[in-house]
C-alpha cells in the first residue's frame, strides 16, 4: 500500500505507515526518552500487535528502532499488549506488559534490556520464568491487562492490573518484594460498579502546590494521588483525585468529582489508553495518549496508516486541588516558525476575522479573549444538567446565535467556510453561577462521507472575574488539540477536510454572540516538521 500524505500529521508522533494504538512504557534512560507503542507491522488495522520502539532527545524529533517486544514465547505468542516501564534501583529499566498466551489468557510478563550500557536499549529479553502474574480463579482471564508502572512502599513493590467482574471495573493490586514473585492483595486498590472493563489504569502522585512532577513512589504530606482508567464501554477515560492509604493499600477518591464514567476527563475528545511517566530531567510528569482515527477501517487501509499519539503534555494538580491541568511540553515550541501577532481586535456579532500569514494547516495558536461583562450570557436550560457536554454542544453549536459566545477559532477552514472545525466557548448563566462550555465541533469539519464527526465538548470550572478566557490550539492536518483556560480543559478532535487541505486551509477568529469580544492578544505560528521516526542508522 502506498501511504497517502493527505491528512497525515506534520508534527504529531506517528510511524511511516500502518496501525498504531496505545503508548506503552514511556521512560527516560541515559539521555534518551523512549516511547513504545502498540503497532501492527502488517497493516493499518488492529492486529499482530508488537511493541514498536522509538527514541528521542527532545520529545519532538524521533528515531525509530526495531520492535522491542513481539510474540515469541508461549506466554505472549498471541500478542504483546499494553504495559509500563519502571526504573529499578541502580537505573535498571524493566517493562511489564500483557501477553496473550497460547491458551488466549491474558497474563503479565516482564522484559529487561539485554545490554544496560546501550542507551538505545535496542534489545529486550523475556526470561523464561514468565508469566509473573497469572489470572487466578477469581479473575476473568480475558479481562486482565495493562500493568502500571510499579511504586514502592516500605520495601514492597506494587502494581495495578486493569480488570472487571461482571460490570464492575477493577484495579487489582499486586505486591512483590523482588519484582518476580507477585501476590494479589485481598482487596483491589479501587473498583467501581457499572463502569465495565478498566483498561490502561494509571496511578501516580501529584504535588499539592507545585507544577513539578513526582516519581511513582514519592510520598509526603503535600502529595495527592490520581487514578485514571480507560473505559472500554464508552471509549472515554476518566480520573479522580484522591488519597492513597499506604497502610491499607486503598485509594479513596475525594468527593470533589464524580467517581464514574461521567467524572473528570483528561481530554473531552478523542484520546484513549493514555499513560504518564516521570521525567527526571525536567522534574515533571508527562502524559501521552492515543488519538485514533475517526474514519472507516476501509479508509484507514486505503491511506496505509491509522492512529497518532497526542503531543506529550505536562500535567500537574490545579491549585484548587480538584482537577489536573495539562499543557503541551515546552519543547514543541522549538517547531514554531513564522509568527503573526494580533491585539485588541474587536469581534462583533457575526464577525469572521482571518488570521493570515501562517500555514493554517500546521499551526500553534494561542489567544486570549476578553469581554466587558457576563451580563449577556444566555440562560442555562435546566434540562441540560442531565446531559453530557457533547449533547449541549450538539444543541447549541457554533451556528446558533448566543449572548456571550459562541466565540473562538475556526480551524482547518475552507475559504468560503464549506468546511471548518470550530473551537469555541459558550458561557451560560445558571441559577448560582456561570457555566463555561468549550466545544470542538467536528460536525462541520468535512464534506466527506462516512466520517465520525462528534461535537466534543466539556464544561470547565473557571474564575470568570477577570472577564477573560484563553485558548490554545495545536492544528496539524487532521487533528486539533485544544487547551482551554491554561490547560484546565482539553479537547482533541480528528477531522478530514476535503477542501481545507495543505495550503488551502484557513484560520479565522469568530464571534456569534451579541456581546462584543475583544481579541486581547493572539500569537500564531506556522509549525515546522520534526524528524519523525526515521530509522536509526547502524
Ligand atoms: N489496547 C491494548 C490492550 C488495552 C487496549 C491492546 C486499550 O492492552 O487494554 O492493543 O486500547
Question: Can you characterise this structure?
Answer:
The chain is mainly beta and 538 residues long. Helices cover 3% and strands 47% of the residues. It is built from two helices and 38 strands. It has helices at 297-303, 389-396, and strands at residues 18-29, 32-40, 50-56, 62-69, 80-88, 92-100, 106-113, 124-125, 144-145, 151-153, 156-165, 168-176, 182-184, 190-192, 198-207, 223-231, 236-245, 250-253, 272-279, 284-291, 305-306, 308-309, 313-317, 324-328, 336-347, 352-354, 362-370, 378-379, 407-413, 421-429, 434-441, 455-460, 468-476, 479-484, 489-494, 506-511, 517-527, 532-535. Strands 26, 28, 29, 30, 31, 32 and 36 form a seven-stranded mixed sheet that branches. A hairpin with a 5-residue loop joins strand 3 (50-56) and strand 4 (62-69). The longest helix is centred in the last third of the chain and has 8 residues, at 389-396. The chain binds 2,5-dideoxy-2,5-imino-D-mannitol (DQQ). The site of 2,5-dideoxy-2,5-imino-D-mannitol has 13 residues, from strand 1, strand 5, strand 15 and strand 19.
Short description:
The protein is mainly beta. The chain has 2 helices and 38 strands.
What structural keywords apply?
538 residues, mainly beta, seven-stranded mixed beta sheet, six-stranded mixed beta sheet, 38 strands, 3% helix, globular, binds 2,5-dideoxy-2,5-imino-D-mannitol
Shape summary: globular
Oligomer: single chain
Number of helices: 2
Q: Indicate the radius of gyration in whole angstroms.
A: 23 Å
Bound molecules: 2,5-dideoxy-2,5-imino-D-mannitol
Mean pLDDT: 97
Content of β-strand: over 45%
Q: Provide the low-confidence segments as ranges.
A: none
The largest sheet, given as strand count, sense and whether it forms a barrel, is: 7 strands, mixed
